[in-house]
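Researcher: Next entry in the queue.
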Amino acid sequence: MNTSYLADNAKARDRLVTALSKLTDDDMSRSIGHGWTVTATLAHLAFWDRKRLGELEEWEQSGVRSVQVPHYGDQLNDTMLPQWLKMLPSEVRREVVAAAEALDHKIQVYPADLAEAIVAQRPRSLIRAIHRNEHLDEIESALASS
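Model: Structure for this entry, 146 residues:
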């Protein structure tokens, strides 16, 4: 099984840590559009990494038969956005890194047969670099244009 996503996840996590080291509190409050701020976007990343961690733990216990779940991401994002907007930058900085580290560690030690089934059905559950890089690109673009 190709596990290059492990290195991609680590690289995206390192990119996240580097970006956080450069962000001021003013940067964290900047809009990235559509009612989202940098803080809310980073809280969103932390939330989804924690959500994926919970799913992996559940699938590990139940034995992955099917990892198909209904798509409810937009609804969850809309529901959580007001809370994410209220979070303190310091809190978000800690949580987004802690969530990424916890999930990446779980993915690194995850049983290969289960990982293979998940990547085949829901690749973004394990290939977290995709989601992280999308939002880091958004943040960098918003900060560059302001």
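Model: Residues 63 and 114 are 8 Å apart (CA to CA).
Researcher: Noted, moving on.
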